[in-house]
Amino acid sequence: MTGGISDLCIRRPVMTVLVMVSIMLSGLIGYRLLPVADLPNVDFPTIQVSASLPGASPETMASTVATILEKEFSAIAGIDSMNSVSSTGRVQITIQFALDRDIDAAAQDIQTAIARTVSRLPDDMPSPPSFRKINPAAIPIMFIALTSPSVPMPVLDRYAQTMSERLSMLGGVAQVTIRGTQKYAVRVLLDPDAMQAFDLDPDQVAGAINAQNVNVPMGQLSGPHQKLTLKADGQLTSAEQYRRIVVAVRNDRAVRLEQVAEVIDGIENDEDGAWMYTARDRANAIFLAVQKQPGSNTLEVAGTVKALFPGFRENLPDAVRMTLLRDASKSIAASVEDVQFTLILTLVLVVLVIFLFIRNLSSTIIPSLSLPMSIFGTFAVMYLLDYSIDTISLMALTLSVGFVVDDAIVMLENIVRHLEMGKSRMQAAIDGAREVGFTIVSMTVSLAAIFIPLLFLGGILGRLFREFSVTIAVAVLVSCVISLTLTPMLGSRFLREQHQVRHGRLYRASERWYLWSLAVYERSLRFVLRHRLATMVFSLAVLIATVQLFRVVPKGFIPSEDRDFISISTETAQDISWPSLLAHMQDLAEIVRRDPSVERFMMSVDDSGTMMVTLKPRSERELSADEVIAGLRPKLNAVPGIRAMLVNPPPINVGGRRARSLYQLTLQAVDTDRLYRTAQELERQMRQLPAITDVSSDLQLKNSELQVAIDRDRALLLGVSPRQIERSLYDFYGGRSVSTIYAPNDQYDVIMEVKPQYQDDAGDLARIRIRSAAGSLVPLTAVVDMRRGLGPLTINHSGQLPSVTLSFNVRPGVSLGEAVDSLEALTAALPDGIQSTFQGSAKQFQDSQAAMGWLLLLSIVVIYIVLGILYESFIHPLTILTALPFAGFGALVTLMLFRTELTIYAFVGIIMLVGLVKKNGIMMIDFAVAAREEGRDAEEAILSACLIRFRPIMMTTVSALMAGIPIAIGYGAGGESRQPLGLAVVGGLLFSQTLTLYVTPVFYLYMDRLQQWLGRRGAGWAG
């Protein structure tokens, strides 16, 4: 059948050319329409539910809100994980669904579940729980900073809100969040002594404020000729207006708000701030974090956002400065451009290899055309499959360059061989194509089949490498079509016949070198064939060594990349005040600012302190991002009272759990006391492990508390209810919103609390008075007892069970596999009833390690099945697969020599090797089988096959090496993450392709003898 296709294309060149032009045009169109991203689209179906009850303790939020919602959510189908964090006045539940779950349908289920819980949730919740779809894997692609030396921060916040709304409307933008928000609010700071003097309680003050600040419709007057809209000035919009509110009348005199409280123009949350640091200055700032929608073109989204910058700057006052703190599209563009350059470089190198072996320009051009044709044909299919141009797909195309040309090389070399027999161009093309057509199909189908197991890889990794696998498989299949159609057609028209060839001095010299190397190979091969047993023993030793190397090689997950960006999280005393936290963060910020590798960074301080650090471009600094972290870590952790955890964010975040470090280990149990004791002991042991660092826990039980015990009998006698007591405390200390200011484009709160000077000490509670049923003010201390204690700052659940998550980083020079092994040794001794599971990247690492061995085995089985079907033999596939141990050995040795971990990329490289190295075997065995059918003995058949196929084997091997070397060098932005794959491919090819030239013939002879023996036994049984 393959010969018929080639014959048709040889005899109909116009048809062939037009078909190839169609492939080129469709590929060009597809390339222009393909989105550009850093990684394939991995859309995590994740929903985050938030609920608030201001002033409620973490225990109250966990028991009255989180537990109710979690029980309702647990009935929803397709939930992969559910985690909740209950803190003071707030619950956040993150629900991650299975990857095949439709996010919109899941959102509808969540909405329905929330509606069913409303009647069971606390009545005084200001609003029902809300939810939003999130993508925990998506890091903001852009941080925009607004700073000003003179414009008030609430005004700056208003500009940020306007910009956020405008940016959120752009196509491709998922959401825009504001960091360090400084939203305007009127703050009413009560003076408890003055309120006692005027016989006032907080409810009276709040009621007066709410009554005086009104904004209701009033209708209109409609006469015979004119309508008049009624408008009043019931809305109060500034602190000055609120100061004059009358809150009571005492002795026929009005008591105004300013007499019992300080009223100021403030901000909604005065314990939330952000600053931008550069090498020269520091400024209060508000940051906008822009996230793109899954599947959208990162470069296009970033370009669309930046296109609005001139308009934003025109509308901002001159005193406001807008700075692009970080633009992730730059690193993505640089990474994609570098991979594109690597792809072009590989194309050039492969063409040079072809020329060096063929030494004829026209003969070089013919197989070289298969390279762009295959790549453009792949672009067309990628567009149809909704793929993107990203580092994974471009890496696949770069690697494919080394072997998409193989088919064309084999075809052309065989046509040239027939020309050297004295045949005409047309006859040589027809005979050569017919002779190797089946070989090419065998090579292509078996190589494409090697990626079938990767399609069954589940989870996040399956999503990532499905695009990689399909891209390479499509490129290989397209190259097969081209080698069977275009290559023989061009050979029949443009190759020169033997009597027309005039070789120059360089050709003759190189031909002498080739003939010499062929003679050396023949002599050495004859020697090996005479010492077959020694060769087989050597092969067995390599197999055993390969298995052992798999066990000892350092194992990792996804390699880190230098994207000119690191993040810093901090841990402090759980009861630290906001001013103290800010002071500690400023100490850290000064250290970071002095680092020569740092360009600028954002510092955000709310409940905790974080920094987003933008490094100078890699070309302008000596140290990599990981080396910068290693240098900063001891300096930052020398600051007393605070610990800093530094992270180089991975190319993709796995899991929806927020943590200070990259990897997480979660403990779960029903018995919370036992869980908390075990978690604290495990955390202490983890800090002593040499493999890990930056150990942190979300168990926060040491928050200083002032426990208020209500004397219920005394309260009843004095006419005070427990609800009144808690409500009064909330009025004074909870930051209660007592009224709302409705502005034309936003709304602002009027917040009431006690003056700051009455919040410093527990003794200040003696000033609080509570209105009794009789109408008098009762001192708080008359109905409560107070004592200091410790309590939780947050309460965490995982899958409805109480949980503690310990996060950690891996020390430099230690593999993730070693760290996980050391932690598994610790968790093996956990008490009964305590469950431990890795989360996020650590869990995916465990899953990948378990899956990859089976995937490799399945790949070998698939190759065997495909080859067995093609050759109608149980024996020949075994012969062809003899190169696999050598490929694995070479890859693992190379990784260890370069001190590179066996990451998921490197493992994919090894699976690729399975498909690459068997090509030599196919070329040799295919010719040997044909020679045996002609009546030659086994040794003569395999010897002649090896010698005839020596040149195409060397050409295809060196071509594949040229495709892997640029990736192995780790050139360009993000090259360090691609390097393990390149090293595995190059090392495996160098070692295996050399030895298989000798081992495969020996193994063939043994298998031929086995086949003959089986044939004789079968004949004997039949007789």
Description:
- With 1023 residues, this protein is an alpha+beta fold.
- It has 33 helices and 30 strands.
- Strands 1, 2, 3, 4, 20, 21, 28, 29 and 30 form a 9-stranded antiparallel beta sheet that branches. Strands 5, 6, 13, 14, 15, 16, 17, 18 and 19 form a 9-stranded antiparallel beta sheet that branches. The chain has a 4-stranded mixed beta sheet with strand order 12-7-24-23.
- Helix 30 (904-933) runs parallel beside helix 33 (975-1022).
- The chain starts with a helix and ends with a helix.
In DSSP terms, counting alpha (H) and pi (I) runs of 4 or more, how many helices? 33
- Give the helix level as a range of percent: 40-55%
Our estimate of the beta-strand percent is: 15-25%
**How far from one another are the termini?**
37 Å
Mean pLDDT: 82
Residue stretches low in confidence (pLDDT < 50, at least 5 long) are none
Quickly give the structural class.
alpha+beta
Q: Using the CA coordinates, give the radius of gyration.
A: 36 Å
Shape: elongated
In total, the number of strands is 30
Largest sheet: 9 strands, antiparallel
Short description:
This protein has 1023 residues and is α+β, with helices and mostly antiparallel strands. Helices cover 54% and strands 19% of the residues.
Which properties best describe this structure?
alpha+beta, 30 strands, 1023 residues
SSE map:
Blueprint: H1 2-11, H2 13-33, E1 46-52, H3 58-73, E2 79-87, E3 90-97, H4 103-117, E4 130-134, E5 142-147, H5 153-168, E6 173-179, E7 184-190, H6 192-197, H7 202-212, E8 220-222, E9 227-229, H8 239-243, E10 246-250, E11 253-256, H9 257-260, E12 261-267, E13 273-278, E14 282-292, H10 298-307, H11 309-315, E15 321-327, H12 328-358, H13 361-368, H14 370-384, H15 391-419, H16 425-449, H17 452-455, H18 459-494, H19 505-530, H20 532-552, E16 565-572, H21 578-594, E17 598-605, E18 609-615, H22 625-636, E19 642-647, E20 663-668, H23 672-687, E21 692-697, E22 703-710, H24 712-717, H25 722-733, E23 736-742, E24 747-754, E25 769-771, E26 777-779, E27 784-791, E28 794-798, E29 801-810, H26 816-827, E30 835-839, H27 840-871, H28 876-880, H29 884-897, H30 904-933, H31 938-948, H32 950-969, H33 975-1022
Parallel strand pairs: 7-24
Antiparallel strand pairs: 1-3, 1-4, 2-3, 2-28, 5-14, 5-15, 6-14, 7-12, 8-9, 10-11, 13-14, 13-17, 16-18, 16-19, 17-18, 20-29, 20-30, 21-29, 22-27, 23-24, 25-26, 28-29
Helix pairs in contact: 1-16, 1-18, 2-14, 2-18, 3-4, 12-13, 12-15, 12-32, 13-15, 13-18, 14-15, 14-18, 15-16, 15-18, 15-32, 16-18, 16-27, 16-30, 19-33, 20-29, 20-33, 27-30, 29-30, 29-33, 30-31, 30-33, 31-33, 32-33
